Amino acid sequence: MSEKQQAGFRARVQKFGSFLSSMIMPNIGAFIAWGLITALFIPDGWFPNEDLAEMVGPMITYLLPLLIGFTGGRLVHGLRGGVVGATATMGVIVGADIPMFLGAMVIGPFSGLVIKYVDKLFEGKVKSGFEMLINNFTAGIAAGILAIIGYYVVGPVMAGLTNILGSAVEFLIGAGLLPLVNVFIEPAKILFLNNAINHGILSPIAVDQTQDLGKSILFLLESNPGPGLGVLLAFTIFGKGVSRQTAPGAAIIHFFGGIHEIYFPYILSKPALLLAVIAGGVSGTATFAALGVGLTATPSPGSIIAIGTLTARGDLLGVIAGVLIAALASFLVASLILKLSKKEDEDDLNQATAQMEQMKGKKSSVSSQLTKDEGTQEASKEQASSGNTEEVPSVREGDIDRIIFACDAGMGSSAMGASLLKNKFKKAGISIDVTNMAINDLPSDVDIVITHKDLTERAMQRVPGAHHISVDNFLNSPRYDELVNELQNNEGPSENEQPETSGNTEEVPAVNEKEIDRIIFACDAGMGSSAMGASLLKNKFKKAGIHIDVTNMAINDLPSDVDIVITHKDLTERAMQRVPGAHHISVDNFLNSPRYDELVNELKEDE
Fold it and tell me: Which residue has the higher pLDDT, 198 or 149?
């Protein structure tokens, strides 16, 4: 397999892993809530309470799988996909006698895909006035059929698969072979497959074990911070140059903050250090298994604080012992490798950081200290493929409401980058909301999106109407100071303020047919009178020979790439906040507005 094919295969695996974790990550709070209730109130918990413990069963059987099914469907086809996905998941739940996390991860996205194609099948074929009826019944019928399929097919199949995986885990534990799993987990983490392994494979099996045992060792396999801590401590004592200077800070962020990616560049600078983290992972898991300890839920992020909070009653000392033994084993092997290796220079770590960026698609927070060299920064800029996304756009503070740092998970280094820019804005007196989130969750009304260069293309596909800034380094980019200067230099009235408050939303914009791909009628529910208004305009376009897609939807679902939005005058302001880059037409009556004929005439005149 060529290098290009390997890179393509790795990208596909990472994308699939990202999709799996995207169904779990938004619901981690619910998993932790269930884990805490389990740890506190079951008979063997910290504060046994028979009444409160009754929540444990329904949450694991119904709540958590339904949340996963809803999230999976929504990822594919918005809220309609989510509703159909959750309904279909109910069939899977009833069709199996064990918690159906894997089943929900299958049926949820599949249901979203089904209703997406059903909607395409009926698009443009429904007579005016029947839109709400068709929308509701197509979703209901599809959800019902999928629930039956889930009951008879998906539930039993996934229950069998879960039992096979559970039996395999029990065999490994009984044979004392479970620690060998870390031989595969530790290298996979460096390839950014940790979320897929932890949330897509280990967690569903671990949750099933927790129902029976009140805890599971599987929650500790990937999240154990000991192996990474040992490597960073070895660099702190035996490292050279930049690596030695940055390792102590990285160790604190890794161990207490739970951001494991921070040690990846250190491993890549000397690939032999994979032996150190493998040794740490195997030693830690062996200790956990020998002492029979476990957690009650997934610790996310993998911080020692989160791990301690979710540790089962009576297991705290055993869990801490496993983490420390993992750190010690990793430290000893890493120290030996560093002593025997050639002298490290700054370029080794810079190259390793760049290699990690290419594989992961996002920065390690430690790289902020590894790319201070101007020549290295310039070389990285030349390698970027995102073109003018590396340039700060010409903007005014009055035009920008929201800036989002985006990466795959929406946490880690992107969160740190957002915090850094917030501080710069605060010092400069700039009042703009800065936050961080996953690319898949980017809202259509975001003004500026800041991403690592390897993720910019995906972010642009998600929100094409936003300004995109591509950086080489989330925590040490000159783009931030340039953005601050741009906003300060362009103070004053916003160019967009006048049109938004002048009332011209009641006037038809000057447009031609070639410029317009899509017109959307929007209201609260996206049905009813707005659907009838869309049907009316479709007929007018058909008679006039105008070929522009006209549809209807809820304001909250408006996509960022819509060209014209037509709303009732009481809802126009909300629509403008949702998609500020579109043309907005405000009407008094969806079914009898002169704006429709004016729009037809405008499009015909500008042909």
Answer: 149
CA distance 428 to 488: 8
Residues near 587 by beta carbon (within 8 Å), at least 6 away in sequence: 506, 533, 566, 567, 568, 569, 593, 595
Q: What is the mean pLDDT of residues 315-339?
A: 94
Pick the CATH number of 505-605 from 3.30.70.360, 3.40.50.10490, 3.40.50.2300, 3.40.50.720: 3.40.50.2300
Residue 392 CB coordination number (10 Å):
20
Please tell me the chain's helix, strand, coil percentages from 3-state DSSP, rounded to the nearest 5.
65, 10, 25
**CB 141: neighbour CB atoms within 10 A?**
11
- For residues 106 and 20, the answer to whether their CB atoms sit within 8 Å is no
Are 587 and 569 within 8 A, CB to CB?
yes
pLDDT higher at 526 or 66: 66
Q: Check if the beta carbon of residue 128 is closer than 8 Å to that of residue 532.
A: yes
User: Under CATH, which number does the domain 387-486 receive?
Assistant: 3.40.50.2300
Note the maximum CA span of the chain: 82
**Is 505-605 in the same CATH topology as 387-486?**
yes
Task: Please classify residue 510 by burial: count the beta carbons closer than 10 Å to its beta carbon, then call 0-12 exposed, 13-18 middle and 19+ buried.
Answer: exposed
- pLDDT of 167 > 90? The answer is no
Of the candidates 567, 563, 572, 568, which has an alpha carbon nearest to the alpha carbon of residue 603? 563
User: Nearest CA to 115 among 65, 154, 152, 75?
Assistant: 75
Average pLDDT value for residue range 557-578: 85
247-281 tens-digit pLDDT? 888 888 889 888 787 788 788 778 889 999 999 99
Task: Tell me the pLDDT tens digit for each residue of 354-373.
Answer: 555 555 444 443 444 444 44
> Position of tokens 């999709």?
19
Among 103-107, 174-178, 298-302, 340-344, the range of highest mean pLDDT: 103-107
Residue 523 annotated among the catalytic residues of the structure: no
Exposed (0-12), middle (13-18) or buried (19+): which is 124, by Cβ within 10 Å? Answer: exposed
Which of the following is catalytic: 102, 328, 407, 459?
A: 407
**CA–CA dist 226, 285 (Å, integer):** 10
Domain range summary for the chain, segments of one domain joined by +: 387-486, 505-605
Under a CB-based contact definition with an 8 Å cutoff, are residues 440 and 75 in contact?
yes
29 by Cβ neighbours in 10 Å (0-12 / 13-18 / 19+) ranks as exposed
CA–CA separation, 351 and 117 (whole Å): 45
Q: Is residue 573 helix, strand or coil?
A: helix
